[in-house]
Design goal:
- The protein has 5 helices and no strands.
- The protein has about 180 residues and is mostly helical.
- Helix 1 packs antiparallel against helix 3 and helix 1 runs parallel beside helix 5.
- The longest helix is centred in the last third of the chain and has 74 residues.
Length: about 180
């Protein structure tokens, strides 16, 4: 026979999964915000992006790759926030109907509710684990997008320096040749 303390322990475990559901939803919203902001900036600044590409000699393929990676992160995040099947503790109407003419003893009632809590907690935990895995992959993909962006800027800066250095050398040769005339 279950005690009230045992029931409270199972209820706490169930509540932890409910809280985990909430924190995963908050993380999903954060990822969606970051991804949509990033994609929005890229789409709104297409003209500036094209000027950057032309000015620094960076291939537009890099930005297409970044966009594709961000869309993949978006899809993972949207899949994570998809409507999930969560299990409630019990259906109160079914419980009341199950009482029959005489209600069960408190111990029997708690036994059944502990069973309900265990089943609901396991099912909710499985759903939360699936969402957490999707969000982990989304975070990794976002990281790859940021890494690609940093790489593009590094290549652009290095390319610009070598371009400016070559231009400076060419200018100096031209000036020294003209000085002797």
């Amino acid at each position: 026979m279950a005690t009230e303390i045992q029931y409270k322990i199972f209820k706490e475990i169930y509540d932890e999964e409910t809280q985990r559901y909430s924190s995963l939803g908050t993380r999903s919203n954060l990822y969606l915000t970051v991804i949509t902001f990033y994609l929005g900036v890229i789409l709104l600044k297409v003209d500036d992006l094209l000027k950057f590409v032309m000015g620094f000699g960076v291939s537009v393929v890099w930005f297409l790759c970044i966009g594709i990676v961000l869309v993949a992160a978006l899809l993972l995040t949207v899949r994570a926030v998809d409507i999930r099947k969560y299990e409630g503790i019990c259906d109160p109407e079914e419980v009341i109907e199950g009482f029959g003419k005489t209600p069960p003893t408190d111990e029997d009632f708690l036994d059944h509710r502990i069973g309900d809590l265990a089943v609901a907690t396991n099912r909710n935990s499985a759903q939360n684990n699936r969402v957490a895995r999707l969000l982990q992959w989304a975070a990794r993909v976002i990281f790859v997008a940021v890494l690609l962006q940093v790489l593009v800027f590094a290549v652009a800066i290095l390319h610009a320096r070598s371009f400016n250095y070559a231009r400076t050398q060419e200018t100096q040769k031209t000036c020294s040749c003209n000085a002797g005339r």
